[in-house]
Amino acid sequence: LTVEWYHNGYPLANGHRFRKTHDFGYVSLDILYAFPEDSGEWTCVATNSLGEAQSSASFNVIGNKVIYDESQHPESLHRIQQIEAPKELPPEPVELKPLAPQFISPLQTIERIEGQPAHFETRVTPINDPQMRVQWFKDGAPLLNSNRFHHTSDFGFIGLDIAYTVPEDSGVYTVVAANEQGQDQAEGYLGVESKSAIIGDTQHEESWKRIQELEQPKEKLEEAPDLEHGPPHFVQQLNSNDDLIEGQPAHFEAKYEPIKDPKVAVLWFHNGRPLAASSRIAMRNEFGLVTLDIHYVLPEDVGEFCCLARNAAGEDQTTGSLHCQSRASILGDVQHPESWKRIQACFFLSY
């Protein structure tokens, strides 16, 4: 038994859209998705050696439109038609012929001092004439462009601003407004008083008076007489440093009077000779307290140190001694006796 399918009298061609089933007498045809060209008569024919049988059926496929010509929003379409409908044109306005310019206020007369700003202003009609031209003149000549001049012409208001004036700006200023119907003009005067190149008068009277008061010669104050100081004398004698070992610091100090005499000179001596300056030695003299510090002593520092205080009235001195025990440069004695005995015992045993 064979089963065949026909579409509009033609054998059905193989395609992935068609699925055929023949199972124990059950015959079916599935079309996964249909197209308009699938419309028509479909026939199933069963054949064997004894004969054949067939069954037919038909269906119609309505295709989807590629272009939609019906409105999807009827209300919106109606509104669009209303908007696009031709409107009645409004009547054209009657063009009014512009009038000739006419100034309704004159320019001012201005007096300024050099450096001050100046301002001219006036009004003109008609205010809505786009063809009107406005030009400024000074003493009959066109006003030259400058960063000091600013022109204004706005809805009938006409102005001229001068940022700062100079004597050359003095003169007659004329503004002319003109259109196709005629012209009109207005005049004003500007006078500029020049400043002196050198200002001789004071600009601040109160400050000038104060300066004169400060510059007036003052009476000299009487100088206080110098206090007479007596000869210096030590109220605390110089100490001694007798039990020092080489390398230790040493400190000497003493006190003298008068402590307020700035002319007292303090001198140090070592064994009758002036003490030489050294990085090891620091000397101080503060309000009658004199000190001598030796950061580390050496054998050559042994001896007598003398401090001498002197002024114009006299002098005084005090002495102190320094004794220093020197250290041997080469150590000949043993520093660890027990270790030395053990070394000797080991030495004799080796023999």
From TrEMBL:
Residues 1-60, 101-191, 232-323 form the Ig-like domain. Pfam families: I-set. PROSITE patterns: IG_LIKE (PS50835). This is Ig-like domain-containing protein. It comes from Gongylonema pulchrum.
